[in-house]
Amino acid sequence: MAQGETVGTVMTRDPKVLESNAPLTDAARVMRDADIGDVIVIEGGSVCGIATDRDIVVRGIALGKDPSTTRLDEICSRDVTTVSSDTPVGEAVRLMRDRAIRRLPVVDGDRPVGVISLGDLAMEQDPSSALADISEAPPSD
């Protein structure tokens, strides 16, 4: 990574966003259609959480919750750490390491503008790494 590089240069743009009252099935469809593993959850126009494919399985389906009636706000991570697009990449890496998180929503003002993930960082730092290869691979349907 280049010295002084910012999150905005390596993040995945156009994040998928759903309201907190959306059912898990909506989130699963968005993730499938966009070939992603997370959606940003908003409430009243502001980021209130992030939901991952793993959250849907572990906090929803594995507990016997009906995915068509269970809302995202019931399973999403609410203690969400965000960064802005002008945050230095090194700071994002430190936050991810310190808080043991794989994804950070990128928010400018109140508006979600992207997500930075471990895969994004791997592709930026070492495009030939195994993590970068996996992150770039097409879906395995």
Notes on the protein architecture:
The chain folds into two domains: 16-80, CBS domain Like (Alpha-Beta Complex), CATH 3.90.1280; 81-141, CBS-domain. It is 35% helix and 22% strand. It has helices spanning 7-10, 24-34, 53-60, 89-99, 118-125, 130-136, and strands at residues 12-13, 17-19, 38-43, 46-52, 103-108, 111-117.
Q: Any low-confidence stretches, pLDDT <50, length ≥5?
A: 129-135
**C-alpha Rg, in Å?**
15 Å
Q: Tally the beta strands.
A: 6
Strand fraction equals 15-25%
Arithmetic mean of pLDDT: 88
Q: How widely separated are the two ends?
A: 32 Å
Tally of distinct domains: 2
CATH architecture of the largest domain: Alpha-Beta Complex
**Main β-sheet: number of strands, strand sense, barrel status?**
3 strands, antiparallel
Question: If you consult CATH, what is the topology of the largest domain?
Answer: CBS domain Like
Instruction: Enumerate how many helices there are, as a single number.
Output: 6
* Sheet with the most strands: spatial strand order: 1-6-5
Strand pairing plus helix content: what structural class? alpha+beta
- Percent helix range: 25-40%
Q: According to CATH, what is the class of the largest domain?
A: Alpha Beta
Q: Encode the helix/strand succession as letters.
A: HEEHEEHHEEHH
Bulk shape: elongated
